[in-house]
Amino acid sequence: MSSADQNPAIVSGLGAARGLGGDVRGVLAIPTFRRLWAALCFASLGDWLGLLALTAYAQALSAGSYKQENLAVAAVFLLRLAPAMVIGPLAGVVADRLDRRWTMVAANGFRFVVIATIPVVGQLWWLFAATLLVESASLFFIPAKEATVPNLVPRERLEAANQLNLAGTYGSAPVAAVVFVGLSLLARLLGGTDSEQALRPASVALYVNSFAFLVAAVVIARLREIPPHPPRPADEEPSAWRALVDGWKYVGSTQVVRGLVFAMLGAFAAAGAVIGLARTYVRDLGAGDAGYGVLFFAVFLGLALGMAFGPRLLAGFSRRRMLCLSIVCAGIALAFVALVPNIVIAVMFTVLLGAFAGTSWVTAYTLIGLEVDDEHRGRVFASLNVMLRVVLVGVLALAPLLAAAIGVHRLTPTDEWTWTLSGAAITMLLAGVLAAVLGVVSFRAMDDRPGVPLLADLVGALRGRPLPEPGRQPVATGFFLVLEGGEAVGKSTQVQAVAEWVRARGHEVVVTREPGGTEVGAKVRAIVLDPGTGHLVPQAEALLYAADRAHHVGTLVRPALERGAVVISDRYVDSSLAYQGAGRALQVEDVARISRWATGGLVPDLTVLLDLPAEVAAARRQARDGGAGDRLEAEPTDFHERVRRGFLELATSAPHRYLVVDATEPAEAVSEHIRQHLRAVLPLSAVEVAEQERVRREEAARLAEERRQHDEERRLAVEARRAEEAERRRAERERNDAAMQEALRQAAEQARLDALAAEQAERERLERQRAEREELERARVEQERLDAERAEQERLERAERERVELERVERERAERAERERAEREREEQHRAESAARDDGESRGAPLLRTPPRLEDTAPLDDASDAQTRELTLVDEIFSMGFHTERADDETAEEGPSGSTGDERVDGDSDSSRGWLR
Ligand SMILES: Nc1ncnc2c1ncn2[C@@H]1O[C@H](COP(=O)(O)OP(=O)(O)O)[C@@H](O)[C@H]1O
Ligand SMILES: Cc1cn([C@H]2C[C@H](O)[C@@H](COP(=O)(O)OP(=O)(O)O)O2)c(=O)[nH]c1=O
């Protein structure tokens, strides 16, 4: 069972009613813690300085290319994170097994030596190796330290101790930054080469760092009060591996611790996302380096605020609930940072994010200290350390990749508004959601107030009035009111007044008194008060009062209370404590024990102590009764003064159960005092409950009505808005439709016009084509006609020419025939004449000319006459000039065959011959 399970009130009520300053002073008042804390602060300062120096040193040693420098710096970071994953768990086991003080001393001594060697060696490889070694040593130191703190401070101061530790660890970072900047400036003033200027401050810072570790080692070595390690029987010492597995198993199997781990992982995922993406995110918002700086400042401011004030603000709130709630809120704040595309608002949410993260950080540390037993604490811190680093490295590495993969998205919820979400923003949103989910998961795993509504619990804690645990609410079991005080202080007077007032509120009121509230009691009263009883040993007196009381409580008071009545008693146990204890000088504790036994531990809900100086009381009694009074009234004044002081002491020891009233005031004023107090504490009577219920119901009905009306109004408004929106949309749609229709109509019209134009053009084209065709046709026909004409002409001409030729040939033939005939005739004649002469000569025949023979001279008829005439005419025409043309034609008609006019003439001679035949 964890320690918190044993006493949840401690966890829930931590720091309540105490201020932070008081807490811090209180925890610093513990000398061992104070010295350890101072040493740790110094070591932290050195550590931060060392980190800055190492990166600067690595950069300076690898000076050359930009890439190399960046790689060197990245290597330093990587080497600082890497060992946690490898030997982190082992270190936790060691912290749980070795002497914690000497583990811390050895780790710091080792770091002192290794860091000091870095500037001495001055080589990059050694810087890397040393970083690895130093970080490994830190892994042994941290769990030992964390596990020790809860052993040095009381549980109720653990939270303050953690706040101080975290303040020391993280508050030293800015101091280290300032110191480092100062050293760098100094180096610049001293001059030298660039590399000297870079190396010198880094070397000095490393020496300071080394020295800080030495101081821490020495201080811790002298803190002998640090418990070595949790006591464990020697034979149960498990192996290192077993211990490691046990540690992880412990985390896995202990629901609360698992919840804690989930919560812290959520917080770290969110933090890692912010660190890994801040630069891109700020750039995406266009806020530049200054924006980046402001955002980081905002984170640290928030962290500081959360660590300092978060737990204090909710002093009475369950720490488990606080852890989960702050992580869920941190997740939500991160989601808002991611979603708001405005650097100013983002910075505000970043402060909130930091505040919630800071609160959860302190709370988680406190819870581990409170809830994890000493035996496992080192391993739990170590396991947590490993997981946190894994998550941190994972998120640092993955977040930018994821952001790049997601890319930039633009949403346009409305026409006027475009919402740009960068990959960085979306990744941060995812991380925020993851953190919130882990917060919820943790809440489920570790809620320590099931049944108490979270919101009401939170509001109660904020108002400083935490809700009681369920099942512990006071049940309506009546109310026991007692009036106490010395003699004649006005108890009877007030009992009556109060009884009347309470009765008027609807309660059943039982007025009673001690001694003598019952019949038996009356007999006892007679014994104890009758002066005739004489001396009674104080013990007997005390026992008689106790006897009366036992019977009184058993037979009257309890039954009345159980009925729910308000019992108002004039005197009760306190009278015994004051009279028999303080007055008779019996041991008050003895008297109390008898009374407790007699009453079964029944304690009044309220005791009204009427305080009056003894003399005043005596005067009143004298005025009331006269005479000497009863056995006790007869006691001397100093007895009554002792009794009065006895009453007052009782009231002081338990102030919440008493109302001390100055009884010198008038009776009415005293009554009013009592009434006023009763109004706050007296339970409601059945009548009042009914009345209240009625009022509540009426109020509820009124509220319901109001809500209904409000809802109705809202519904109507929403409907109206919706209708308006729908109308607007409809109108817009109609407008769009109309525009579309118009566009369509115009397009159709255009298309129609275009079609018409095209048709027209086509018609014209066809017309043109037809006209052209006709024209061509006409031209062709004309051409044909002309060709035909020409052919005819040519034919005629040719015929003419042939005819002429024929005629010429004919004429020539005729002429030739004529000439031949004439020749023959002449020959004939000549022959005849020669014959005749011969004859004559011979016979002397007359020289008579023989007429030409008909067959020789007249073969031509009239037609041939006419033809002859015609040919003659053509010849004449030819002779007048056609001859040349004809010759030309004949030349033109000579084909490539090279046919000659003679051949042509020969060719044609057939036809001309035919024609002649
Ligand atoms: N506040 C008061 N101031 C003055 N006189 C008072 C006051 N209260 C009561 N008395 C008177 O003092 C006397 C004693 O009061 P009482 O109620 O009988 O005291 P008790 O019951 O304590 O003995 C009575 O005479 C009462 O009238
Ligand atoms: C109840 C009780 C009363 N007494 C004394 C105180 C009173 O003197 C006496 C009760 O007397 P009572 O007349 O009831 O008181 P008062 O005079 O104030 O009205 O008994 C004790 O000593 N021890 C007790 O436990």
Shape: elongated
Question: What is the number of E strands?
Answer: 7
CATH architectural designation of the largest domain: Up-down Bundle
- Spatial strand sequence of the major β-sheet: 4-5-3-6-7
| Structure ligands | adenosine-5'-diphosphate, thymidine-5'-diphosphate
SS content category: mainly alpha
Mean pLDDT: 78
- Tell me about the largest β-sheet: 5 strands, parallel
User: How many structural domains can be distinguished in the coordinates?
Assistant: 5
Classify the beta-strand content into a percent band.
Answer: under 5%
Low-confidence stretches: 1-20, 232-237, 470-476, 844-849, 852-860, 881-917
Measured on Cα atoms, how large is the radius of gyration? 66 Å
How far is the first residue's CA from the last residue's CA? 158 Å
Would you give the CATH topology of the largest domain?
Growth Hormone, Chain: A
Q: Treating each run of at least 4 consecutive H or I residues as one helix, how many helices?
A: 29
- By CATH reckoning, the class of the largest domain would read Mainly Alpha
> What is the helix fraction of residues, given as a range?
over 70%
State the CATH superfamily name of the largest domain. MFS general substrate transporter like domains
Please tag this protein with its features:
917 residues; mainly alpha; Growth Hormone, Chain: A; Rossmann fold; 5 domains; two-stranded antiparallel sheet; 29 helices; EC 2.7.4.9
Describe this structure in words.
With about 900 residues, the chain is mainly alpha-helical. Helices cover about 75% and strands about 5% of the residues. It folds into 5 domains: about 20-230, Up-down Bundle (Growth Hormone, Chain: A), CATH 1.20.1250; about 240-410 and about 420-445, MFS general substrate transporter like domains (Growth Hormone, Chain: A), CATH 1.20.1250.20; about 480-685, Rossmann fold, CATH 3.40.50; about 690-815 and about 860-915, no CATH class; about 825-860, no CATH class. It contains 29 helices and 7 strands. Strand 1 and strand 2 form a beta hairpin. The longest helix is centred in the last third of the chain and has 157 residues, at about 685-840. Thymidine-5'-diphosphate binds near residues 488, 514 and 576.
